[in-house]
Amino acid sequence: MTKQRSKLVVGNWKMHGRLAANAALLEGVARGAQALPPDVHVGVCVPFPYLAQAQALLGGSRVQWGAQDVSAHEQGAYTGEVAAGMVADFESAFAIVGHSERRAYHGESSELVAVKTQRALAAGLTPIVCVGETLEERESGATERVVGAQIDAVLAVLSVEEAARIVVAYEPVWAIGTGKSASSEQAQQMHAFLRARLAAKGAQVADVPLLYGGSVKPENAAELFRQADIDGGLIGGASLKAGDFLAICAAATAGASVAS
Ligand code: PGA
To answer: How far apart are alpha carbons 260 and 258 in whole angstroms?
Structure first.
């Protein structure tokens, strides 16, 4: 029997949005989320300048909010950086860390991602730690080695209590923004692998939410979320339309009752 875990669906807006358009999207998501069952949790990770807007429009709703990154530094002379404490000032729940776009375009190492995870936790945020292999790594049979090293680097610096407070998102790089999602079998296989790594850290860590990300759409969400070790999703492109995002959240409901 699989343990029943609640579902979590988080939107990652990336560098999209403008003040006026955001209002309609945030209000639409907040309104639609009222109809979701209580075991489906919903969040949106917005660009830093819009955290105040998210706080104003989502406060008191079912939808939580957060940022897409935090600095590895607590404070200081780091021009352009945003500290986890600043993100927390806006009552944020989440901070994504280690997204593959940051690893690829900003040279972020797993060790840096580990420090960012610590900063987020210290500020009272839930870090959503992203891991995932490139197509080249998958095709050369290196998927488990790469993803295992990414998660191990983070777990190595956390206590068991801290590790129990993270969320992990498995996002194969080749599936992000490509329209080509991992199959539910491929995703489940990697989630089971990650679950075992987390469980090895400590029994309390085994049940941290494991999200799948990479071309999740209303059409494929239910099948992905039905898998035993997939506890929800990190949604990029499809989180920019309230209707699509809410349909994906609703699919988490449908998948929530299946055990293996
Ligand atoms: P996508 O992005 O849903 O647009 O593929 C997911 C992500 O990068 O978090």
So the answer is: 7
Q: Give the DSSP per-residue string, 185-207.
A: HHHHHHHHHHHHHHHHH-GGGTT
- Helix, strand, or coil (residue 138): helix
Q: Which of 41, 99, 101, 191 is catalytic?
A: 99
Distances (CA, A) of 8 to 31, 40, 177, 200, 245: 17, 6, 20, 23, 12
Which residues, 6+ apart, have CB-to-CB distance to 19 below 8 Å?
A: 50, 53
Report the predicted TM-score, pTM, of the whole model to 2 decimal places.
0.96
pLDDT at 257 over 50: no
User: In one letter, which amino acid is 150?
Assistant: Q
The answer to whether residue 99 is catalytic is yes
Cβ atoms within 10 Å, residue 183:
13
Q: Report d(CA 151, CA 232) in Å as an integer.
A: 18
Burial class of residue 77, CB neighbours in 10 A (0-12, 13-18, 19+): exposed
pLDDT, one tens digit per residue, over 78-89 is: 999 999 999 999
| Domains of the chain with CATH codes | 7-23+33-238+248-258 (3.20.20.70)
Rounded distance between C-alpha atoms, residue 196 and residue 138, angstroms: 20
User: Residue 13 annotated as binding?
Assistant: yes
Query: Known binder of ligand: residue 11?
Result: no
Q: From the candidates 108, 137, 171, 191, which is the catalytic residue? A: 171
Residue 123 has pLDDT above 90, yes or no: yes
Inform me whether the pLDDT recorded for 126 exceeds 60. Answer: yes
Pocket test for ligand 1, best of 8, 9, 10, 14 (most atoms within 8 A of CB): 14
Q: Is the predicted pLDDT of residue 3 greater than 70, yes or no?
A: no
